Amino acid sequence: MRNDQTTFNDLYIFPSKGNDGVIGLLDRTTTAEGRTNLYKYVKHPPDNFEQLSAAQKHIKFWVKHAERWPKVITNGTLVMLEKFFEAADGATAPPSGFSVFFGEYYQKIFNKEEYFFTQFSLSHIADFLNGCKELTLLLKEKDLPEQLKTQLGEMASTLDHHLIEPLMAVNKNTPFKEQAKLSYLVRREMKYAIAQLVKMYARLDAMQSLACATAQHGWVFPDLLSAERLTFEAIGLTHPLLFDATPYNINFNEQQNFLILTGANMSGKTTFMRSLGVATLLAHLGMGVPAQQMRISFFSGIITNMHVEDDLLKGESYFLAEVKRMKMTAEKLQHDAPHLVLMDELFKGTNVHDAYECTRGVVDGLLNKPAHLKILSTHLYEVARYFEERKDVLFSYFVTNMDEQDSFHFSYELKEGISNDRIGYRILQKEGVLDMLRGNKPSQ
């Protein structure tokens, strides 16, 4: 799956303006290197259905065997490893002569800094190698998924070195003379191997993080289908960043793959589309999703047309920016590889008549792209009415409840059909804006 930065921004995937984003719900990594790998993985999910299926099996394993994740390795462990090998540049000769002859007592008194650095570093190396060894013991498990089996096999192969056993045995009782010798040898012989082990561990840390998040949030693993049959079905789907969110039931297929969504501002249209986008991304990471049930086919990418921005430096207007984003969308949809397309109030940068003509033209064109799943929210109810006889288009809306006193509230409940709400002018009146502009005191 390939997504661009605009899509990530529209779906609030990464931290922005003090918000941790969706990834804040996923980050249960134990190391900074693991977190870096998690971010890379979210930006570049599996490229095809086979890779995605393998990733889901991998993550499911960690949900089932969370207790097997080694506790001995911490972020401090990897930080100390980095410092140890950075200091290796000055170690050009093995320990010998006067300093070794006088032994540990001399080191504590006259070479205190080097003594404790060596001892502390080797204890962290021992912890790291013991943690990696603990992970490779999983190779004995019968239900080990292939992806994890391959990665742990590479780790086990890298651990096949004559220094591993003595390094793993290092503790506070190990004589300094032996520690000094091991320190020299590991710097000379194992810098590359340990760097590779850190990379392997970080990749696993990212995957166990997604498993941990799935379990902590009580999310369910979706049924994954190949891209051959366009499918998106969900029961009880919610937006993960919202507390006590209203759930949605969705059912798209090859015959009905376009949804036109209507309803007033603030009624929930944009949140609904973000819920679909976020759930699709989570499913394509191989982890659980915030729903009771979900079936989804493989999508090659998510394309959002939601918060397009103008570019003052390029002299581009808001409308031109919208057109360019839609052109990019059209280019991607020339291929049959399925995409999820989320469009929120297209062509806001022009007048109502132009917006209607442009939106209608885009919908007409998109209906010729049955391989893709499209959702459009619009205030232009005339667009929805124009296409309401089409059997391949779904229509849903969000209800706005308003009483005789013009008080309104939103249930955020998704219903079939086309909205008839016209509440903008009434809200303007209720807030006293028109009275103030006319010079009248606003009604209480």
Summarize model confidence as the mean pLDDT: 86
Give the low-confidence spans: none
The CATH level-2 architecture of the largest domain is identified as 3-Layer(aba) Sandwich
Number of strands: 10
Report strand %. 5-15%
The chain-level structural class is alpha/beta
Helix content: 40-55%
Order of helices and strands: HHHHHHHHHHHHEEEEHEEHEHEHEEHH
Under CATH at level 1, the class of the largest domain stands as Alpha Beta
The CATH topology of the largest domain is given as Rossmann fold
**What's the multimeric state?**
single chain
Q: What count of domains describes the coordinates?
A: 2
Report on the biggest sheet: 6 strands, mixed
Q: Give the CATH H-level superfamily of the largest domain.
A: P-loop containing nucleotide triphosphate hydrolases
> Radius of gyration from the CA trace?
29 Å
